[in-house]
Amino acid sequence: MLKIAVLRGGGLGDLLFAMPALDALAEAYPEAEIVLLGTPLHQQLLDQRPGPVSRVEVLPTTAGVSSADGSTDEDGTRRFLERMRAEGFDLACQLHGGGRNSNPFLLGLGARHTVGTATPDAAALDRMLPYVYYQHEVVRWLETVALAGALPVTGEPRVVASRAERARGRSLLGRRGSGVVVIHPGATDPRRRWPTERFAELARRAATRGNTVVCVGDAGDAELADRIVRQAASDGRTEVVSLAGRLSLSDLVGVLARADVFVGNDSGPRHLAQAVGTSTVGIYWVGNLINGGPLSRATQRVHLSWTTRCPVCDRDVTQVGWTAERCEHDDSFVAEVGVDDVDADVESLLNARSLRSVA
């Protein structure tokens, strides 16, 4: 059996950006076992879920590949690579980044053939594309696997929510209003976050119109979500609830799949909401839209901030690749996005959902 290894560390969004490339590999090599070298989060999402990945092997702590703090577990990395070499991979695909750290790691797998991206100082693979920061991630990885003869079959990521997840989502959401609006206020980079008072005003408006409004996120987002709940309910009549910090990844899939509209920053939950088929309204800094925004607009709306300089120190912020230095300020780059415009898209998508259900 043909065996293909795909290297993709990072967060939830990073994996979802690579999903169309994984679909392309599965279509080009239908008999192949596709092994994703990813993170525990990736394993949680893909375990026993239909899709192109046969199994996930969790990466060891390795600088530039899977380490949050730049450290490397030398023994763990050595053992992992030894175990992977014993798999006898026919093809290894680097869908991780510029290759300074990931290309040597990929070469350590001992695969017969390798493809990936590379900056000028990265180790050479058999077939490579230049890594240029400003390119949409989905397109980048589709272009990369095309080097191995895998042509696109899907343009955006898709994740199938199970019947059990949908039932769990229905249970967690409880009584449904006229529509369900899910809000995610977080983002790994605080500069991507829309101010909480804007989310709160949006939530208040949606709830006032009879919709169920729920905030989601991990434990790190709980304080932001609680703030939104308090601010939205300051009139004493509006009810907005928070599930932030209380959901497993499977729970989140179910909640997102049952939602009518998702509103949030450029983040993993926004990408996941789109992948499970939910309409989204995303708030983006323009540079992030280039690299990771939705490609379609029928049910995926975006609102852009055109900020190009830090609002505090006035430093140019357009060079935000992984090699670029940044200033120490975390002030929002998307604060200029107004509530009225976002709210109009939420209403438009809710109305479109209502029309579809009637039809």
List the helices and strands and how they pair.
Elements: E1 3-7, H1 12-28, E2 33-38, H2 40-46, E3 55-58, H3 74-85, E4 91-94, H4 102-107, E5 113-118, E6 127-130, H5 137-146, H6 163-173, E7 180-184, H7 196-208, E8 212-215, H8 222-232, E9 241-242, H9 249-258, E10 261-265, H10 268-275, E11 279-285, H11 286-292, E12 300-305, H12 339-358
Parallel strand pairs: 1-2, 1-4, 2-3, 4-5, 5-6, 7-8, 7-10, 8-9, 10-11, 11-12
Helix pairs in contact: 1-5, 1-10, 6-9, 7-8, 7-12
Description:
This protein has a six-stranded parallel beta sheet with strand order 3-2-1-4-5-6. The longest helix has 20 residues. The chain has about 350 residues and is α/β, with parallel strands linked by helices. The chain is about 35% helix and about 15% strand. It starts with a strand and ends with a helix. Strand 4, helix 4 and strand 5 form a beta-alpha-beta unit.
The biggest sheet amounts to:
6 strands, parallel
SSE pattern: EHEHEHEHEEHHEHEHEHEHEHEH
Average pLDDT, all residues? 94
User: How are the strands of the biggest sheet laid out side by side?
Assistant: 3-2-1-4-5-6
Number of helices: 12
Beta percentage is 15-25%
Rg calc: 21 Å
In short:
The protein is of the alpha/beta class and 359 residues long.
List keywords for this structure.
globular; 37% helix; alpha/beta; 6-stranded parallel beta sheet; 359 residues
